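Assemble and predict.
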Amino acid sequence: MDRTNSIVDYMDCISCQKPSENELIYETQYWKVILAPDQSYLGRCYVTLKRHCGDLAELKREEWLDLAEIVKKIENSLKKSFGAAMFNWTCLMNDAYQNIPPNPHIHWHLKPRYNHKIEFAGLTFEDVEFGHHYARGTNREFSEEITQKVIEKIKENL
Amino acid sequence: MDRTNSIVDYMDCISCQKPSENELIYETQYWKVILAPDQSYLGRCYVTLKRHCGDLAELKREEWLDLAEIVKKIENSLKKSFGAAMFNWTCLMNDAYQNIPPNPHIHWHLKPRYNHKIEFAGLTFEDVEFGHHYARGTNREFSEEITQKVIEKIKENL
């Protein structure tokens, strides 16, 4: 049995769970776009494949093309919504390899980067590392109310 | 004039330069695959777009589909060549934003990750951060002879 598609893997996989309505930004046929809990980079999100698959080499043509449309749409919204200057896209999946056997599920990290201070919903954001690798070890979680404001803003500009 | 396609940008862009034969692994219609100078992760390479374009949102369908084939081919070779366990793909382009105006050129960083010690060409490699974010601030450059051995090995398994 192909482990990457077994029912056990599927059930154990947090990325296979249906996102709650209060974290989902939007979804397409193949991907879901979710606001990340850590908003150190305002508008940071995950773009997660809707089927359980753990290696980019196994992505299908239609999944790549759907991703291409998401990249356009979400980057455009983050520029309009918050003034993002550019974007860092990463597909890492390292944590999944802390388990034996590993059970990776393809998801992209999208970090909008900002070349100026941003004010949103009464909060201030500053990307002090702009022009350099993203910072790690930071964590900025919002109240439910602010989270919804961020999601609504991104949705408005999709 | 669209700055992302101006002749000045094109001439100023290091990623637009033709790679030397002793760093090129292979190329397709739209992308070139180049061995990265820093080999802290054995087989680390860049997958660079052959036209001057600075935002993934502007990639064309045929460029995404060509990338999809490269992902399959290069991951497969790195598994066969050196026993890579999984891969970190990132598209960052932060450094380009240290200049005003910025002049980014799409390139992917591919870091093969290893869950066991590797011996190659008399050298030893250990991915001590396996299962975690890639290490930064490391640099391991090879002699010309070793570089060529690495490239030849990857080419053999393409």
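The longest helix of chain B spans residues 61-82.
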